């Protein structure tokens, strides 16, 4: 029971982090009015947050390997609560952008720190499924932003809504300090102080492992489409371009979370039982994303509601699909550097997301603002990212197989029975 309590507390912190991450996505139109911001400036809010998040992943991973999950989860919650509280009261555009940057920094600490708890508290066979559950259940934060946060925003106003989110962050800090422990022994093994050069060598070593890069490209190709949709452009696209009401748009975002949870459970079971088929599963998820977007964007007018439902369900599978990237990192890296490897993997999808969000903002501005035709052009940016990610997956998968085959040959020579090489 204790492992589940520790994990559930960390999961709550991640749910709050996802709520913090997605609040601006559902309050984008209100933010545009409050700060007199156009599409490009509005996208800069989220893009800066994601830049900070992605840039902090490797430093966060290094800190995680040194200080452990408990410290970083609490620190991340404190940063996010501070940023949301500042955003609640400011009407200054520069201050608001700075507050979102602070939220992004705190967010960077949270997810990989919760993931780091899993191999310490659960058996190897449980790890793939619990990892999936961490990612998909964390998306309940998106439900919180789409329904109760949005209700507070429309009913009681901007300040009340954002103060409420900050209060959840404070609750997360308290629960983390009381209930989370890095390992069943309650502590981690402290690393000795190292020089900057030794840190850089360690980072380079982790990156050069083909499994780390395979995880990076996996995360990139699967995650960015649904992230861009949920984090920034989904609600404006559904309401303005597709003509849906705000209520229906919120319901579709909630459906996205339900779809992700359902798919994540199946993906977790599949990858746990058939680890040698993980990369093929990832490639199928990327292909399905590209196909459904092609169908929607090929229509000369607004899509029927049933097709938008299919779009939401299909792209939502990319969320749990991206978790396979962390499984690759765990397979190819020792526990001592797992935080750094996880941080590198986590950069993939968010680097892609920030580029797509910003480029879409530029295209929307150039096309005269938010409209059906402008969005139709803007969403095509995704195809370049999918192509790049697929090439990266195919190249690094081949190298990862070669490393595993070499390891297996060495184990045979030493008298061990190696497991089948993942494919």
Task: Explain what this protein looks like in three dimensions.
It is globular, with a radius of gyration of 21 Å. With 423 residues, it is mostly helical. The protein has a single domain (2-181, 209-413), classed as MFS general substrate transporter like domains (Growth Hormone, Chain: A, Up-down Bundle), CATH 1.20.1250. It has 19 helices and no strands. It has helices at residues 2-26, 28-35, 39-55, 57-67, 69-89, 93-121, 127-138, 140-156, 158-179, 196-208, 210-241, 246-273, 278-298, 305-316, 318-322, 324-332, 338-366, 372-378, 382-413.
Our estimate of the beta-strand percent is: under 5%
CATH topology term: Growth Hormone, Chain: A
Largest β sheet strand count, sense and barrel closure: none
Q: Please give the count of helices.
A: 19
Looking at CATH, the homologous superfamily is: MFS general substrate transporter like domains
Helical proportion, percent range: over 70%
* CATH top level assignment: Mainly Alpha
Spell the H/E element sequence.
HHHHHHHHHHHHHHHHHHH
Q: Any guess at the CATH architecture?
A: Up-down Bundle
Q: How far is the N terminus from the C terminus? A: 35 Å
User: What is the radius of gyration computed over CA atoms, rounded to a whole number of angstroms?
Assistant: 21 Å
The general outline is: globular
Whole-number tally of structural domains = 1
Number of strands: 0
Sequence stretches where pLDDT stays below 50 over 5 or more residues: 414-422
Structural class: mainly alpha
Mean pLDDT: 85
InterPro entries: MFS, MFS_dom, MFS_trans_sf
Membrane topology: Multi-pass membrane protein
Organism: Mycolicibacterium rhodesiae (strain NBB3) (Mycobacterium rhodesiae)
Main location: membrane
């Amino acid at each position: 029971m204790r492992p589940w309590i520790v994990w559930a507390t960390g999961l709550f912190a991640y749910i709050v982090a996802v709520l913090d991450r997605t609040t601006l996505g559902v309050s984008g139109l209100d933010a545009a009015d409050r700060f007199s911001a156009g599409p490009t400036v509005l996208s800069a809010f989220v893009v800066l947050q994601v830049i900070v998040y992605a840039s902090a992943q490797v430093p966060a991973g290094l800190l995680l390997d040194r200080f452990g999950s408990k410290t970083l989860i609490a620190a991340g919650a404190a940063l996010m609560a501070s940023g949301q509280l500042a955003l609640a009261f400011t009407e200054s555009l520069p201050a608001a952008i700075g507050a979102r940057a602070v939220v992004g920094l705190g967010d960077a600490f949270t997810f990989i720190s919760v993931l780091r708890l899993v191999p310490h508290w659960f058996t190897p066979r449980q790890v793939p499924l619990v990892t999936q559950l961490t990612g998909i259940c964390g998306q309940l934060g998106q439900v919180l932003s789409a329904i109760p946060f949005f209700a507070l925003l429309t009913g009681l106003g901007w300040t009340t809504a954002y103060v409420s989110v900050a209060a959840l962050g404070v609750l997360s800090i308290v629960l983390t300090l009381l209930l989370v422990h890095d390992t069943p022994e309650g502590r981690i093994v402290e690393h000795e102080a190292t020089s900057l050069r030794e840190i850089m060598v360690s980072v380079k070593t982790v990156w050069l492992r083909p499994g780390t890069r395979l995880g990076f490209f996996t995360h990139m190709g699967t995650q960015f489409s649904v992230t861009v949709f949920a984090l920034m452009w989904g609600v404006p696209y559904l309401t303005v371009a597709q003509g849906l009401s705000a209520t229906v748009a919120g319901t579709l975002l909630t459906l996205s979370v339900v779809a992700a949870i359902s798919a994540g459970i199946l993906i977790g079971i599949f990858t746990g039982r058939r680890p040698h088929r993980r990369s093929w599963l990832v490639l199928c998820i990327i292909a399905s994303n590209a196909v459904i977007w092609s169908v929607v964007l090929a229509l000369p007018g607004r899509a029927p509601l049933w097709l938008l439902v299919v779009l939401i369900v299909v792209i939502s599978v990319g969320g749990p699909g991206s978790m396979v990237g962390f499984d690759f990192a765990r397979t190819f890296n020792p526990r001592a550097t797992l935080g750094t490897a996880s941080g590198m993997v986590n950069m993939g999808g968010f680097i892609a997301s920030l580029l797509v969000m910003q480029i879409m903002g530029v295209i929307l501005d150039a096309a005269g603002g938010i409209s059906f035709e402008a969005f139709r052009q803007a969403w095509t940016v995704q195809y370049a990212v999918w192509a790049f990610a697929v090439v990266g997956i195919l190249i690094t998968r081949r190298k990862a197989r070669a490393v595993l085959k070499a390891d297996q040959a060495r184990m045979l020579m030493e008298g061990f029975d190696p497991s089948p090489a993942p494919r």
